[in-house]
Structures are given as C-alpha cells and as structure tokens.
Design a protein that fits this description.
This protein has a single domain, classed as Methylamine Dehydrogenase, Chain H (7 Propeller). It contains 2 helices and 29 strands. Strand 25 and strand 26 form a beta hairpin. The longest helix has 11 residues. It is globular.
Length: 411
C-alpha cells in the first residue's frame, strides 16, 4: 500500500510532498495518505513531457567505448518502442496481483519468487509469491489490515521491511527481517517517540539490504535529527553508526553510504563507512560529486542518481568513472523514483514508469500512467497504476527478466 499510494496520488487528485529541491530534506505526507514508490517512498510532483514521453538530451549521441566493469559508456538515453520480449512480459501480469492489492518488495535470489505486501481474500500481510504456481506463503499476517502496510527490500536469503501502523503517518513503524533459509522472522527495531508519545519524523525509505547487512534511517529528536542504524542479519545485532541531520542509507559494495548535512535545510553530501572495518571510508569517484539528493541507485558497479531538482538523470557504468547526464526532463516536470536491476535502470514520474537498457541507453514506457518500479539483483518488478481510486486497488504486477529489457541502441 505504501507503493500503491504513489501509484494513485495523481489519480485521486491528492497533493503530496516531495524532497525539498536542492536540500535532501525530509518531506511530509499529504494528510490521510501514505506515500511510497520505487527504491524509496517519496513521490515527485512531476511527469514526463506532458505527452507520456520522457525526453532525452538534445543532439546526437551513441554508446561510447565499452567499460570493462559495467558496460558501455553512454552519452544519453533515448526513447525506443518496447521490444518483443518486453511487450510479451507486459501483456502477462502476475495473476495474484489481479485478485487483490499486491505491492512488490523484491525478488528472491533465484528470481522464481517475489516478496510482496498483499491484501487477498483470507490473508493480508507480507508473503512469498511463487511466480510459477501463484501460491502465496505467508511470512507475517497484518494484525490490523485496514491500516498496516509494509515497504522493504530483499537481497540473497534476506527480506527486510518496515511495517507501519497508520494511514495518517509513516513515522510509527517496526523493522522486521525474514531469513528464507530458516524461515525465522526477527524484529530488528522500531521507531522512537518524543515526550508526548508521537514518533519522531523519519525519512521515507525502505531498509536497504546487502549480503547479511541491513540499514535504515529513523528519527530520534526534534529539528530533523535522524539516526542511521546498521543490522547484522546473521546475529540480529543493531547499532547506530551515525546520527545528526542524515538521510536514508544505501549499500555500495563494501560501503554503507548516507546523505548528511550540517544543519536542517542545508544541502546534503554523501558519507560512507566500510563494512569490513567499521571505519569511515572514502567514496568511489562516481559518488563524490553527488549532493543535495537521496535518489541514488547502485549495484556496486553501475550507479545512477538524480540531480537536486529531480529533473536530470546521471549514469555511470563503473565506480571509477564520474557519471554523465544521460536524460533531462523539460521544465515543470520531475522524476519520482529510481531503481536498478541487472542490465536495466527504471524510473517513475507521476505520468508513467520507464525502463532503460544500460547496455544501449534505449528506454521504453512500461505503464500507461503512473506506476512503480522495484529493483532487485535478480530482475525488475513493475506495478501498473490503479484503474480507480480504492483503499486497496488492483495493481497489475509484471516481472521483467534481464533479457526482456534489451532495447535498441540510440541512433
């Protein structure tokens, strides 16, 4: 439902808060609406060019010399019609998603199962969905299905999610981890409350997961004070690795990285800790120029991020190569989310969702309107927007294997 809220905000005619341009500041939800989407949970207020098309950079461009690490050096992304494999994948949504609201959290390591937050007849909660048989295996049932919802991430054997308990605010939550090998669910932590019992505001991002590590951000005091917490999923040990004016963390290889500013409203820069030593670490070349944004997607090799104004997309195929601006939206439109998967990069606006091949730079529109993309190391999940306003709308879900996102090269 967190992601569903983003899918339906424009359809419902509801306003929503986005990150303050150029600050990385924590946004606030529209009253009565939980907000979510993509690799994070902030919707942006923008769209495409007003005609359902994302707009590429002007001028000629084509894939450049190959990069040994993550593919060719691309000078721009360009719109292309969906290829036959992509069209076929989009024609066949996951059947369970047509019977009740189904919000993807990630894919299993094999790609044969999806982790979902779903509201089905007889069950509402977090579950494993067998993509071949359509069978749902419950992980955790919602105690209060009318208000409980989840957003999370998966990597390897682990699924980690935040379960929130209100439609009015996402600041009250509990963090859980599920081990797909043992089947054990473990509570890792929960939001912190102020003297009046109200949870401190927290950045809206699902926990990040990599290997046996998970990390998330949570508020702990007034004035936007936020802790970055790191959990060892093998032992359950959780520790605070940074606190202050921080934003939600992400993993980049052996680093855990987070945006941070000196004071509320100031532009953020990135900081990192080495997971092997527990000590501060230098950023790779591709991340050093990143500032004023918490929209960063990386798989430890390829990296993409948005500019502070949410109007330009930057991409690099390798850690030691600064990212290039490969796509810019016209004035008055904005990106809303960003996700990375093998061979692909996906983004959403409040107009539609798009998927690009990082081998060629060609991208295609993959939802008629709105929508959300969820990245995973084993594939990409695309949720269509709702057909109508509803508490639990049907959101057709599509699974895109890496082969399906291959697109022609930019001419």
């Amino acid at each position: 439902m967190l992601a569903a809220a983003v899918l339906g905000l424009a359809a419902a005619g509801c306003g929503s808060g986005g990150p303050a341009s150029g600050t990385g500041a924590t946004p606030q939800p529209a009253p009565g609406h939980a907000v979510g989407g993509g690799p994070g949970r902030q919707p942006g207020p923008g769209g495409s060019d007003g005609h359902g098309r994302a707009v590429g950079l002007p001028g000629a461009g084509s894939p450049g010399a190959g990069s040994a690490a993550g593919g060719p050096v691309l000078t721009r992304f360009c719109p292309q019609p969906p290829g036959p494999e992509l069209r076929a994948a989009l024609r066949h949504p996951v059947p369970v998603s047509l019977r009740g609201e189904t919000v993807p959290l990630g894919l299993s390591a094999s790609g044969r199962a999806a982790y979902v937050s779903t509201w089905q007849p007889g069950f509402a909660g977090v579950a494993v969905l067998d993509l071949a048989t359509g069978r749902l295996r419950p992980i955790q049932r919602y105690q209060h299905p009318a208000v409980d919802q989840a957003d999370g991430s998966a990597s390897g054997r682990w699924l980690v999610w935040e379960r929130t308990h209100s439609l009015q605010s996402l600041d009250g939550f509990t963090v859980y981890a599920w081990d797909s090998v043992t089947g054990r669910v473990r509570a890792l932590g929960h939001s912190l409350a102020g003297p009046d019992g109200t949870p401190w505001p927290s950045p809206w991002r699902p926990p990040a997961v990599s290997g046996h590590w998970a990390a998330w951000a949570q508020g702990y005091g007034p004035g936007g004070l936020v802790q970055v917490r790191l959990a060892d999923l093998a032992t359950g040990r959780v520790r605070v690795i940074r606190q202050g004016h921080t934003q939600a963390p992400f993993f980049d290889g052996n680093l855990v990285v987070w945006p941070e500013s000196d004071q509320p409203g100031a532009q953020t820069t990135l900081n990192a800790m080495d997971l092997r030593t527990g000590r501060p670490a230098a950023l790779p070349a591709v991340l050093r120029p990143v500032h004023g944004t918490d929209f960063v997607a990386t798989d430890g090799t390829r990296t993409a991020y948005l500019n502070p104004g949410l109007t330009a997309l930057y991409y690099s195929p390798a850690q030691d190569q600064p990212a290039r601006e490969v796509l810019r939206l016209p004035d008055g439109t904005d990106f809303a989310s960003l996700a990375i998967s093998p061979g692909s990069l996906a983004w959403a606006t409040t107009e539609a969702t798009y998927v690009a091949s990082t081998a060629t730079g060609g991208f295609a529109k993959v939802t008629r309107e709105y929508g959300v993309a969820t990245g995973s190391p084993s594939g990409l999940l695309i949720s269509d927007g709702p057909a109508a306003k509803s508490a639990h709308p049907v959101l057709p879900l599509h699974v895109l294997a890496p082969a399906a996102v291959r697109q022609p090269a930019c001419g």
